[in-house]
Amino acid sequence: MKDNTQFIFNYLQELYKDASCELQYNSSYELLVAVILSAQCTDRRVNIITPELFKKYPTPKLLASANLEELEKLIWSCGLYKSKAKNLISCANSLMDNFNGEVPNNLKDLVTLAGVGRKTANVVYSVAFGGQAIAVDTHVLRVSNRLGLANSNNPTVVEKTLMQLFDKNDWTKLHYMLVLFGRYNCTAKKPKCEHCKLKNICIYYKKM
Fold first, then answer.
1. Catalytic: which of 17, 137, 167, 207?
2. Of 12, 73, 180, 187, which alpha carbon lies 20 to 30 A from 55's?
3. Is 137 assigned a catalytic role?
4. Looking at beta carbons, which pairs linking 141-145 to residues 24 or more positions away fall under 8 Å?
5. How far is Cα 47 from Cα 24, in angstroms, rounded to an integer?
6. Phi/psi at 27 (5° precision)
């Protein structure tokens, strides 16, 4: 597979050379909240919800003391709103109790926040603080397996595999190129295989 990695990277770069986070935010706090909301929800939907949310809760301190039912009403349309509302309040309390209301700038501390898993931590670390990380969401997981870059449904295993295959300086860029490729080209249903230059090395295409 190592022989194909550069070919895959070059093609993804050809398609999405300016790949970046599509969530809208103005601070690391806002990004953290948006990423938590984005679980099993489109970035477009999150971007519709967050302006009003950030207007009402512009700081971790205010979010930490939010009324659960009021918060649920603000975010209900993004799905899983009950658990997400609880996670947001818990996360804000973690920020206030352990980090003086500031979002930590490293993975070790980010993953200690309530409601924050490795994927969320990787996104915040790479986007807000310029770190190199590969966050494995459903798109990255699907595309990596279809292209033979990985052979696992475990996000952590796929993350470590991709980190070994690609140069560290490209990890964050690779993440977003894979996300966009999975979102707009290599979709879960009816992927656009016909014009894809990767179809000759694609495990999924060969099984069609």
1. 137
2. 180
3. yes
4. 142/182, 142/186, 142/188, 143/178, 143/181, 143/182, 143/186, 144/178, 145/203
5. 6
6. -160, 165
Q: Which residue ranges form the domains of the chain, and what is each CATH number?
A: 2-19+134-206 (1.10.1670.10), 28-129 (1.10.340.30)
* pTM of the predicted model over 0.85: yes
Which residue is catalytic, options 3, 43, 119, 197? 119
Cα dihedral across residues 146, 151, 155, 158: positive or negative: negative
Phi and psi at 162, nearest 5°, equal -65, -35
- Do 174 and 13 form a contact (C-beta atoms < 8 A)? no
CA angle 193, 196, 202 (to 5 degrees): 70
- Separation CA 111–CA 105 (nearest Å): 11
- Check if 119 is active-site: yes
User: Per-residue pLDDT for the chain (208 aa), expressed as one digit of tens each?
Assistant: 557 899 999 999 999 988 888 899 999 999 999 999 998 888 999 999 999 999 999 999 999 999 999 999 999 999 899 999 999 999 999 999 999 999 999 999 999 998 899 999 999 999 999 999 999 999 999 999 999 999 999 999 999 999 999 999 999 999 999 999 999 999 999 999 998 999 999 999 988 7
Per DSSP, 200 falls in state: G
Which amino acid, residue 112?
T
- Return the residue matching tokens 């770069």: 13
DSSP state of 130: -
